[in-house]
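Re: the request from the purification team.
They wanted to know what the chain is likely to look like in 3D before they choose a buffer screen. I agreed to run a prediction and write the result into the notebook, where they can find it.
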Amino acid sequence: MLIPPAILPILPGLGSLLSVLAALFGLGLSVLHPRGWKLWAQLIRSQWRGMLVVFLAGVGVYAGWKLYSKPSQEPASAPVQLALDGWPTFQRSLDRRGSDDAPGPLAGGVLWTARPEYQFLGAPAVSEKVVVAVGVFRNTARCFCWDAETGRELWSGAPQGLRTTLSSPVLALGQIYCGEGVHDTPQSRVYCLDPARDGDPVVWEVKTHSHVECTPFLTEDRLYVNAGDDGVYCLTTESPADNIAVSDSRRVVWHVPGEAAPDVETALAVHNGRVYVGLGFETPGIVAFNAATGAEELRAALPMPMFAPPALFAGGLLCGLGPGTLVDAAAAGPGEARLIELDTLQTRWRIPLSASMIQSAAVDGDRACLVSADGQVHVIDTAGVIERSWRCSTPVLAAPAISAGHAYIVSGDGFLTALPLTSLAPVWTARLGEPGEYLGSPVVSGGHVFIGTPAGLMCVGRSGHEAAVVPTKSIRTAADYAPTTMSSPSTATAAH
């Protein structure tokens, strides 16, 4: 039998383990005797290798237990009636602005941070001054609700054993809907929580055969969601007279299996009776299904995976493509943005990008703000012309938000930057934390920006009289920025 080389150095120590244990038993009986201390000294001198092995093994077992054991789940908070409504999809609507259209903050500064022990991978949702987000702590996820002004925690809860979550919550009629899992999470689920319920807050949950990184899309009584390699689901959100039980598969109105819709990761779009779904690595493309029946109506191949949630823009879908994922998007190679026709799935125009576009664009009327993962920010018009650009010095993995003519960008160096769409010259920045993977997209509501970070959910920015007591600018050195206005506008390439 071959012995791994890494084991050889400790074999002499292992040979003395039995004698160490026997000696320890004897010493345990005589430790109070004056001769006991002498015996201990002799033991340490003669058996120190074995004792060191025992000590290191104990440290390793404890460290592994702390790292991999699942923490006990907190019970749900006391039930509370919250006005949760009007946030049916990723970044609130199909324009993916991520805002309530109220003026954004006039200055930076972190107002409050909640649950800093949790990592927040998705975007929050905001309704009636209540902020909702899902955080992750040691592979266990939990949904939280806070007062938007003060950061006071109003409620928290989760389905039993909820695991790491990339999906963002959506809100309707007092209830919270979300998916479970990241790319390697098997047997995940889609669930509905009601903070007003006594006891278990889970209204229902539906299991899937793959992960649900996708943020669901809500209509009046339907929820549409992608489930990775398990395809696309349409679920009913109604509570019928026979009171469908939790986990009951009868909630599934239709299901397109993974063979017909492989590697569907991102948030989808539902518009005019169709469900538009981007496909990943196996067969890159876009598919349109009938929203009522799930029947396939349109399909078009694309040259690269489509992982960015599509945004409604200029009468079509503004889609982001690229070879990268959240792990390697900044360095995986060039990507592109495409405007795809709703009725044919043909490409109207395309914009080459320096890296993958893995997050949605944000639309502001006849212009849109889009970001490539290497930190390039562009404002484009409806013809696909790049009007102006700004370069961040680090990767950007979160979608932009737009409010009152300003874009809000979260970058990997731990900063939030406010940029007027008319110039893309930074007006203020706010330090969120140390450099890292900032995956949570910002949302703007009530004059503040809410962001999920690797160390908590943050409320950033001051508006009105609050801004008068702080500097209106807090900007890094010029070397960190490269705002540019295209002297000869870059025009999109027409599709052929």
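For the purification team: The first strand starts at residue 107 and ends at 114.
Please add any questions underneath this entry.
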